[in-house]
């Protein structure tokens, strides 16, 4: 009597990460629409200066102060024109790269510095934590816009100064958030086990605690990115942001 051989079922092919992300976004139509809009903005940021740099600088006196939402002067003037007849749409698209780079640089600096200080403050405690918290409170006692205005009024409003002052104003946010997370994480069993095995402080912070804090820090950085962009735009409106050209 022969035993029938049953063919082993082939393992289902694992879907790609990109397909999984798209499927998850599709479950929430608002999130899917927001992702499409974000991708479009990023494409404009990357390709805009290459495609519309000449149009952003071109002077057209016939289109001076053109009204928005009109196609009489062409699609480039859908948002109107300035006093020299330059397309506002082209200028916004081209300038978006500077705005994104400045905001991203400021957030990265504040994330790294504030995150490291928060790890140290939360894990060590004592006078180190108290000193860092008092410094953070001193910085947070000034509104970010006011602090930026004072610093940039004293120093020249260049790109590096704008990035530095925006980064310093947001460091306390990351410091206090990471410190609060570390205060809870350092009491868990995996930290106690690492200490029992003789792990050093830097290894515990960077290899065990930091990965657990990273999701919170990433979410906070995304929120701070939008806030920093608004502050930078406000500084430009006041004339102490990025200077022409």
Walk me through what this model shows:
The protein has 245 residues and is mainly α. 71% of the residues lie in helices and 0% in strands. It contains 8 helices and no strands. The longest helix has 37 residues, at 88-124. The radius of gyration is 25 Å and the shape is flat. The chain starts with 16 loop residues before the first helix and ends in an 8-residue tail after the last helix. 24% of the residues are buried.
- Structural class from helices and strands? mainly alpha
Strand-residue fraction? under 5%
Low-confidence stretches: 5-14
The number of strands is 0
Q: Provide the residue-averaged pLDDT.
A: 85
How large, in whole angstroms, is the Cα Rg?
25 Å
Distance between the amino and carboxyl termini: 88 Å
Helix count from the secondary structure assignment:
8
- Main sheet characteristics: none
Oligomeric grouping of the chains: single chain
What is the string of SSEs from the N terminus onward?
Answer: HHHHHHHH
Shape from CA axes? flat
Q: Determine the fraction of residues in helical runs and give it as a percent range.
A: over 70%
SSE layout and pairing:
Layout: H1 17-27, H2 29-57, H3 88-124, H4 126-140, H5 144-154, H6 159-185, H7 189-196, H8 201-237
Gist of the model:
This protein is mainly alpha-helical and 245 residues long.
What are the salient characteristics of this protein?
mainly alpha, 71% helix
